[in-house]
Amino acid sequence: MYAFTKAIVSYLAIYICFTKYQEMKHFDVDLHLHSRFSIGTSPKMDLPRMCETAHLKGVQVLGTGDCLQDVWLEELESSLEKRGDCYELEGIAYVIQTEVETTVKGRVHHLILFPSFSSAHELREVVLNNGYSRLTGGRPQLKISPEELISLVCEVDALVGPSHAFTPWTSMYAAYDSIRECYGENRDLVTFLELGLSADTKMASKLAELDSCTFVSFSDAHSAAPDKLGREFTRFCLRRPSFREIRRAFQGVNGRGVVLNVGLDPREGKYHLTGCRRCKKAYDLEDITADGNVLKTCPECGGPLKIGVKDRIRFLALKSCEVPLAQRPPYIHAVPLLEILKAMKRSNPMNVKKIYGELTREFDNEINILIDAPLGDVRQRHPELAEVLERFRKDAIDFEFVGRGGWYGKIKI
Fold first, then answer.
1. Nearest to 112 by CA among 160, 157, 70
2. Low-confidence ranges of the chain (pLDDT < 70)
3. What contacts 289, CB < 8 A, 6 or more positions away?
4. Which segments of 130-265 does DSSP mark as H helices, in order?
5. What is the pLDDT of residue 15?
């Protein structure tokens, strides 16, 4: 009997160990989107178009965007199908998600991920009943501090982290000099940080205070166009695409985690360098600093200056004097395929769109073309594109214009 029991226990141990890792898969995830109810968002930003673009891109998991807005929330609840702990539509998994802005002690944007619709409803009721916001817009402004927001979000079992943490306005590092200063006593409840378009892992890793945060790259898309949705994404190792699994990935449970970040080269981001919003002139921080104060207007034209992410991180890293220790997954710089095709002098928009459709059908999806497909396979059929992709994968792309002052950078091919 003892031998039989021992054999059963051994078998179960082997089975559990086998299934634990056998079922792990990679999922490409974009969890920061907006609906048509957010300011500056395309009126065509709806679920069918999100799903269509996600299939073209090869993104398997999307955020819903704007789930605290009542009309959009009703639309989500009537459209998404719940299967176990996953929400799905047309083969795409969804995580209930919104972005909010806190307005007490600085304007800061935060990304919130919910385990369920009921959790989102709970937070809605708390916000409405306490007069924090009327929640009429897609990205609501809440009359609370970041520290208070963390408490409210944790009460409904949701996750929260800073959105586009380094941009020079409506971000954590625009309003505060440290994550502890921003979130106070609740800092340790912040498990992830969104890098944003003007920063990457190498830049953000200079801040040792972020060693315990998982870095994520999401698009913050205001349109379902293929050059917007999924332009930045994070590859997770999960058993299945669900909120519960993503929470476990942030905790590093049993092999789950982030295995890759993919996003724009920071030089393409609108706020990489310090620069003027009017005349586009870029400046070194030292050149616009007088008596310890940074100038707020351009010496050339008098236009408003914006401190670039590169300079802001350098300043914060020097101030902290800490040594970063965290080991991070790779970060790949990638530009949406549509942008690459346009830069390859295929100037006719209809021609670019046609070629894009042919390529995504031929190679299954855009991410496969940009990141995963062997270059030899691409070279056999599209030698010119393969040459460009090889330069991207080697991080050897030049720029005609590096982003600054609110102006996007422009790649040179």
1. 160
2. 1-22, 346-347
3. 295
4. 146-155, 172-175, 179-183, 201-204, 243-251
5. 42
The pLDDT value recorded for residue 412 is: 87
Residue 270 lies in a domain: no
Q: Is residue 292 part of a domain?
A: no
Do 120 and 206 lie in one domain? The reply is yes
Nearest by Cα to 262 from 146, 370, 374: 370
Q: Number of C-alpha atoms within 13 angstroms, CB side, residue 73?
A: 22
CB 96 within 8 A of CB 241: no
Give the pLDDT of residue 347: 61
Assess whether 223 and 360 both reside in one domain.
no
Q: 254 with 352, same domain? A: no
**Among residues 164, 168, 199, which one has the least CA distance to residue 294?**
168
- Judge whether 316 lies within some domain: no
Helix 70-79 to helix 47-57 angle (10° resolution) is: 60
3-class secondary structure, 130: coil
The DSSP code for 80 is P
pTM of the complete model beyond 0.90: yes
Domain count, the chain: 2
- Distance from C-alpha of 193 to C-alpha of 167, rounded to nearest angstrom: 13
Residues 201 and 65 in one domain: yes
Range of the domain at 385: 338-396
